[in-house]
Amino acid sequence: MAGETKTKTSARKGLRVERVWTAEGVHPYDEVQWETRDVVMTNWRDGSINFEQRGVEFPTTWSVNAANIVTTKYFRGAVGTDKRERSLRQLIDRVVSTYQKAGQEHGYFATDQDAEVFGLELTWMLLHQVFSFNSPVWFNVGTPSPQQVSACFILAVDDSMDSILDWYKEEGLIFKGGSGSGVNLSRIRSSKELLSSGGTASGPVSFMRGADASAGTIKSGGATRRAAKMVILDVDHPDVEEFIETKAREEDKIRALRDAGFDMDLGGKDIVSVQYQNANNSIRVSAEFMRSVEDDTEFALRGRLDGSVVSTVKGKQLFRKLAQAAWECADPGIQYDDTINDWHTCPETGRITASNPCSEYMHLDNSSCNLASLNLLKFLGTDGSFNHERFVQSVEFIITAMDISISFADFPTEKIGETSRAYRQLGIGYANLGALLMASGLAYDSAGGRAVAATISSLMSATAYRRSAELAGIVGPYEGYARNAKPHQRVMQKHAAANDAIDTLGSVDAAIKVAATEEWRRGNEIGAKQGWRNSQASVLAPTGTIGLMMDCDTTGVEPDLALVKFKKLVGGGSMQIVNQTVPRALRTLGYQEEQVEAIVEHISAHGHVVDAPGLKPEHYSVFDCAMGERTIAPMGHVRMMAAIQPFISGAISKTVNMPESATVEDVEEIYYQGWKLGLKALAIYRDNCKVGQPLSAVSSAKKEEKAEEPAEVVVKTEKVIEYRPVRKRLPKKRPSSTVSFSVAGAEGYLTASSYPDDGLGEVFLKMSKQGSTLAGVMDAFSVAISIGLQYGVPLETYVSKFVNMRFEPAGMTDDPDIRLASSVMDYIFRRLALDFLDFDTRSELGILTSAERAAQLRAEAAGETDVDLTEMRNSAPVEKVEKPAEKAKPVEVAAPRAVGSSTELLELVQGKAADAPLCFTCGTKMRPAGSCYVCEGCGSTSGCS
């Protein structure tokens, strides 16, 4: 096997390292072509420059986005000084030299030559984006700052005021460094229990307020990103119902305050008045509780001091409350306690009670985990094979480096440092799984896709633990191994047994499984004799910033976000491109180049593969994405997680996206299946469950009046009187106006004629050449609408039916009042509404002119609770179609909407707003990355990276 031939353990207690990626006598830097670039980062919202460094050096193969993110995030030294790093060489050398030197000092290598080869191999892999360490390594290693290498932390809180105050302090120190932490508050006695003084306890939810305020303050004080934290409560805690409903109640408060005119957007000036917004909440459920849900029996809530039953609840009813709250606001998530601890390698030391903010790291209290992720697409051959030998060799190098880092690392608290050094938790993982599967011609939600993902995950963890066992023979097992030897070996056997149970469906996954089986066998053999160097080896993190650094199309275990993406260009600007994985997948599926070009052109125009020329319907699923026309079903995400989980030491950071139409029962089913399928944690997000709509000042009085009006139907016992509409024809000479328009480049003309009393009575549409099918359909449509208007169909009825209709062409228009249209019909009826309907009617339909929207924004900025409708009416330009001479001077056409990220690009294609927040650093809309968000503009994340 590769591990036997390339990296061996010598009799001199040190690793003998042979070359894998490099060639003797050639430095990795000499194999690539370098170029200098200027990195100027502007705020997408106002155009102001928030970072500038010119003359930075990167390989020509690195994208503009990757170079920008590395320059702004990871280069150290004051900008504008000689101490500032300016080349990727300096960054890699700073980190790799520190690892190489520490490895030599702590006895990892047999000779200095082995250490040198090790350093060159790491350099080559980092240079060619084969893998990346997590962000704290790039921030801190090799600098005068504390050498913090971990991104994930778990704290502990006991039932005492001293411990609670320590929690606030420790959490603040972690946030200050830009990392996140998780904590389980279940040891704190409930609000239904007494204090020793005789008073009633406050309960954990009350103490969450103080921690939340602290996190918000540190965030606003200038941390590198939003404070990321996880708060967990056990399902048998007497305050569990209050905890479940906490964030849902706050979401109701946000709605009420927003309706009153307060700025409640993410980052808004008034959002700070709402509590519990800086944490992800999760409920830790037990198998006993889940069985009570199944059997619809009573479940006991127990006191924290003596375990006595404080009250009982119906398990099914409590589970329903959990699902209801998650449906309303995406919190709480769920963690499966028995599953987590069944796979725990160190139960003799203590149970696993909590996780980091993104739920991928789960281990002992007061511990940390440093992460690194491989770029899976780098191992996919042009023939569709997966180079598992190179993969094994790469994992060996990375795990060795990660373990070396613990030897020199600093930690935010002494307690965390002691636990981390004694148990040496690592978190190797990967990114680009979604791209790998698509490029292989496999659907994400398919048995074949899950088999490949499972075997790769198994091979990664097997190799990591085998290398960990080899390191134990050189530098010793982790300190806590002796007392946990039996449970650790038991978990290793569970992993190996799960590997044996994988059903392979193709030659690729079958070959990977053979390699994984051998790695588990060898690793368990060595470990039984020497122990293991690490109590944990693998997790699947969101890979937000580092995924962008490696130019990955997909993050963590996620599928592709969409088939079109946003790409920055050298020299500034951006463009829309079809993901490069798509043509590779089409070639894998057997399509010829002409067909590939036609399909890619269709995707570029429409954003999806439906009805793409020449694409077989059975191949549509290969191109299913997390968002867009064809989305992966929620259970598709859950099944992928279930396929991978048995081969991951920790857990998986991933949010299961659900459509807005999903029900509470759907959420219950997802949470229930997560338990049945053996997941460790699960979180859901239902589209638009968070408050995101703009301020609406339209009075509902008019709607209520309409609702109260009875239908005018006259019924008599003798006969029924039927009223027929009468057509009111327009006079021979009638006022009219013609508007030229352009929707996503498709041009046309709209002619609207009105009655002398200023009511619309006729519409004509001109598009395409005379005699074409489109021209004929438009003529027929115009006649149908015109006759309906003349028979008395209200224009607002047509507007309500045709506005928001979505089909191509869709996108930017040349009308300053209607910046974007989801179709030609959407534009036409918005234009007719603006020209012929009164303000109140249009307001109910959500159609305002640019001047009216500006007046609304001025009212919001002034902090008004009610928008001045009179001022908005007066601010609107009045057009009278019967007197064309009175029209105002031509209005300057607004610039097309700028696109700052792939999420915004997808909004243009879909014609609706995504729920992702705006980046606090540069204002760009972020995109999902696991259970967090990442900014494609500057690389900032809302969690681990």
From TrEMBL:
It is an enzyme of class 1 (oxidoreductase). Its cofactor is adenosylcob(III)alamin. Its EC number is 1.17.4.1. Residues 732-834 form the TSCPD domain. It catalyses: a 2'-deoxyribonucleoside 5'-diphosphate + [thioredoxin]-disulfide + H2O = a ribonucleoside 5'-diphosphate + [thioredoxin]-dithiol. Residues 150-685 form the Ribonucleotide reductase large subunit C-terminal domain. Pfam families: Ribonuc_red_2_N, Ribonuc_red_lgC, TSCPD. Keywords: Cobalamin, Cobalt, Disulfide bond, DNA synthesis, Nucleotide-binding, Oxidoreductase. GO terms for molecular function: cobalamin binding; cobalt ion binding; nucleotide binding; ribonucleoside-diphosphate reductase activity, thioredoxin disulfide as acceptor. CDD domains: RNR_II_dimer (cd02888). It comes from the Bacteria. Transmembrane segments: none annotated. SUPFAM superfamilies: PFL-like glycyl radical enzymes (SSF51998). Signal peptide: none annotated. Residues 39-129 form the Ribonucleotide reductase class II vitamin B12-dependent N-terminal domain. One of its GO terms (biological process) is DNA biosynthetic process. Catalyzes the reduction of ribonucleotides to deoxyribonucleotides. May function to provide a pool of deoxyribonucleotide precursors for DNA repair during oxygen limitation and/or for immediate growth after restoration of oxygen. Belongs to the ribonucleoside diphosphate reductase class-2 family. This is Vitamin B12-dependent ribonucleotide reductase. It comes from Dactylosporangium sucinum. The gene is nrdA.
